[in-house]
Write a structure and sequence with these properties.
Strand order of the largest sheet: 1-5-6-7
Radius of gyration: 19 Å
Shape: globular
Order of helices and strands: HEHEEEHEHHEEHH
Length: 249
Amino acid sequence: MPFQPSPQHDDGYDVADYYNVDPRYGTLGDFVEFTHGAKQRGIRVLIDLAVNHTSNEHPWFQDVRRDPASKYRDWYVWSKQKPPHSHEGMVFPRVQQSTWSYDAQAKAWYFHRFYDFQPDLNTSNPEVQAEILKIMGFWIQLGVPGFRLDAVPFIVATKGPKVRKPEEHYDMLRRFREFLQWRQGDCIVLAEANVLPETDMEYFGADGDRMHMMFNFQVNQHLFYALAAADVRPLVQAMQAPIPTTVTV
């Protein structure tokens, strides 16, 4: 799980600084020593990369709250009025009441698919995408050979007050992949995408040039059900399900 500085309201997924290590875990020097030791032992270390959203205590978000003209204004998703569909699309519907929250200091509503203390980054913004690549490059230089990319379906989805049915821009994943392999040829990226099987191949691409790997949520979920119900049949069905081949290009 993320080990960067964080208020720890969501086990570190509310990142407040992408370029450091939380003091509770050590220092950047400790991390480099760790990755070096792992490499000596033939161990490749994948780290969690949570870039769909930041903590509301991140300096980028704090700067926007203070200054509407901040260069980070378009790094987040804002609305002057509360969107009429704000009660839809919550990741945790029994915990969240809305995907939009009002910030009194900014005098505007901000978008968050997860908790209200995790404002979404505007991942369609080229500057935000460039920053994500910069973050990847930083950790590669410190010995990281791969990333678990958190909340991928939300990263590739369009966001905004007028967006009712988000569109997915999977080409973004190709840019991430190209950057990683340019910086380090054997660097990999693992997608965390809890989606229906018919969309799985979109995350790999027709030419296999998007994500390297992807969690199999369908099998995982049926595995937990099989254990809870003492019934292996749903798990067998999930594992034998045909792999869809339709991909958007």
